[in-house]
Design brief:
- The protein is of the alpha/beta class.
- It has a single domain, classed as HUPs (Rossmann fold), CATH 3.40.50.
- Helices cover 40% and strands 23% of the residues.
- Helix 3 crosses helix 5.
- It is globular, with a radius of gyration of 15 Å.
């Protein structure tokens, strides 16, 4: 493996994904690219004053930078990136652009009705990504945390 793409939003499940991604990088000698995607919608309340004018770039960059810094502290070559748009589509596009060998993404663990209403970046990514995807659930450390899908 040469490149692992970590899609991170800074959430606890993304922290679990970072742990697995850095472990895989150390084991294989791969570099890590930490990607945070700014969505087309502002964070929080759509009706908030100036919501459409919120500049999410600094927040997204900070999340990606923190993940890359954490990986470097663990001895992994890492860089931070951001993208803008629909998360699953952007993650898949960056994976293709990088020639990534694997995408690692956290899952918030929503299921059933919650997943149908809120959507699922990890589900969409598994369906459309041109490279293998490992989805890491944000669960206690004594439970299985990863499921891998290969296209």
């Amino acid at each position: 493996m040469k490149t692992i793409l970590l899609a991170t939003d800074g959430s606890p499940s993304a922290a679990h994904a970072l742990e697995l991604a850095t472990q895989l990088c150390r084991e294989t000698g791969a570099r890590l690219v930490a990607l945070t995607v700014r969505t087309l919608e502002p964070h929080g309340d759509r009706d908030a004053p100036h919501g459409d004018e919120m500049d999410l770039e600094p927040v997204a960059q900070e999340i990606a930078d923190e993940a890359a810094s954490a990986a470097r502290l663990l001895g992994v070559e890492a860089e931070a990136r951001t993208a803008y748009g629909a998360p699953a589509a952007q993650i898949a596009e960056v994976a293709k652009e990088l020639g990534a060998d694997l995408v690692v993404v956290g899952s918030h663990g929503r299921s059933g009705f919650g997943s149908a209403v809120l959507g699922s970046v990890s589900r969409a990514l598994v369906s459309h990504c041109p490279v293998p995807v490992t989805v890491v659930r944000g669960v206690p450390t004594d439970a299985p945390v990863a499921a891998t899908h290969t296209s």
